[in-house]
């Protein structure tokens, strides 16, 4: 595959283009090309992640009560069980009662999903969210 910048035309309905222009203006894009490049990249990353067997990287964000001391042990055990995939974590004492933890995980999509499910599903976790992105190796 030849690299370098290629130009191509896109045909689409005027109303759809108007909506797109309005959307990208709100998001702060300076031009359509950059917005379209981001849409393509996002789709490629999503497909990579959904394949399940490609290496991805993600963050698991969880919120839980500081007073659930047994939960701290459970969350630590899960991270030790998957120590080869858990790269780093950050703990924030949000107030007297609530903790926020962000755990960075790297590995095959399916494995990341499994770790996130365990952490988010741990009894006492109030809310959790997995965000997956790419390692960047296969994207330009
Ligand atoms: Ni805390």
Describe this structure in words.
The longest helix has 20 residues. This protein has four helices and four strands, in the order ααβαββαβ. The chain starts with 13 loop residues before the first helix and ends in a 6-residue tail after the last strand. Strand 2 and strand 3 form a beta hairpin. The protein has two domains: 38 residues; 80 residues, 2-Layer Sandwich (Alpha-Beta Plaits), CATH 3.30.70.1150. The protein is α+β, with helices and mostly antiparallel strands and 140 residues long. The protein has a four-stranded antiparallel β-sheet. The site of nickel (II) ion has 4 residues, from strand 2.
- CATH overall fold name of the largest domain: Alpha-Beta Plaits
Q: Supply Rg.
A: 20 Å
How large is the count of helical segments? 4
Number of domains: 2
Keywords, separated by commas or semicolons:
2 domains, Alpha-Beta Plaits, 4-stranded antiparallel sheet, 140 residues, alpha+beta, 29% strand, binds nickel (II) ion, single chain, elongated
Summarize this, please?
The chain is of the alpha+beta class and 140 residues long.
Secondary-structure topology with pairs:
Layout: H1 14-27, H2 32-51, E1 55-65, H3 69-81, E2 86-93, E3 98-108, H4 109-121, E4 125-134
Antiparallel strand pairs: 1-3, 1-4, 2-3
The chain binds nickel (II) ion.
